[in-house]
Design goal:
alpha+beta; 12 helices; globular; five-stranded mixed sheet; Beta Polymerase, domain 2; 61% helix; 13% strand
């Protein structure tokens, strides 16, 4: 599959006349929550030649490759990426922290990742995951039987919020790393059983599920008060910093050829 992914990325570069700066896995595989049926969700950041940006017209800044062979490719232009980075866009930050990287322009991405940390807004970031947890919780409660996958869709954003509360920084993408750091010790072993039940489709003690259901409910009630104490983050000279990063990357990538 990795060869197919690399070949697909090269085809994107040729077809769209772009340079890919970064490509990674997102979604369940990056979270460590994939099953045998999980798709490969490849996300990438790319850059056009200088002339593409010198236009009075707005142009499409997303590349999507039609889904095939359990492979989903989706990419963002660098200018769009930096605009989203300025807002601490959670999806982008998950890409940048993925543990499965297929390609990376190391120097460029080092600057982008450092800038993401410098401009990080804990408040905006937490608001996103609180909203996600609440929305997914409503979905989890629908129907006569709540699925394990739906439980994780609520539990993971809650753990991210707890990470921000404790560390005021971008959370790791790995579910188990999150669980190890922020779950109460008495629940950490239970999280391993939850992951195994999801990824291997094994039976799980109902008592463990109920314990995590109660945890989710308590945390959702608590997080409203927590959000009020979270700092907004530093945004000093963000536009100058991002403009400089954009221009320097253009020169570095295309002058090198």
């Amino acid at each position: 599959m990795e060869q197919l992914i690399n070949d697909s990325l090269k085809k994107v570069e040729t077809k769209h006349h772009v340079k890919i700066l970064y490509a990674c896995e997102a979604g369940s595989r990056a979270y460590g929550l994939s099953t045998e049926k999980s798709d490969y969700d490849v996300r990438f950041i790319y850059i056009h030649p200088l002339e593409w940006y010198l236009s009075i017209d707005e142009k499409r800044d997303v590349i999507e490759v039609p889904f095939s062979s359990a492979l989903d490719l989706h990419g963002w232009d660098l200018r769009k990426t930096l605009r989203l980075l300025r807002k601490s866009n959670p999806s982008l930050l998950e890409w940048l922290t993925s543990g499965i990287v297929y390609y990376e322009e190391l120097l460029v991405m080092e600057h982008i990742k450092n800038t993401a940390s410098e401009l990080f807004s804990p408040l905006a970031y937490m608001h996103h995951y609180v909203s996600m947890a609440r929305g997914n919780y409503k979905d989890y409660l629908k129907g006569s039987a709540s699925s394990m996958k739906k439980l994780f869709r609520v539990l993971r954003p809650i753990l991210i919020c707890k990470w921000v509360e404790q560390h005021v920084s971008i959370a790791p993408i790995s579910f188990q790393k999150l669980a190890e750091e922020v779950l109460p010790k008495k629940m950490y072993n239970g999280s391993h059983h939850l992951v195994k039940a999801l990824t291997e489709d094994t039976a799980l003690d109902r008592g463990i599920v109920e314990e995590f259901q109660l945890f989710v409910e308590e945390e959702l009630n608590r997080l409203d008060g927590v959000v009020k104490s979270i700092p907004s983050g530093r945004k000093v000279n963000s536009d100058i910093k991002l403009d400089t990063l954009f221009v320097n990357t253009l020169h570095r990538v295309w002058e090198r050829g």
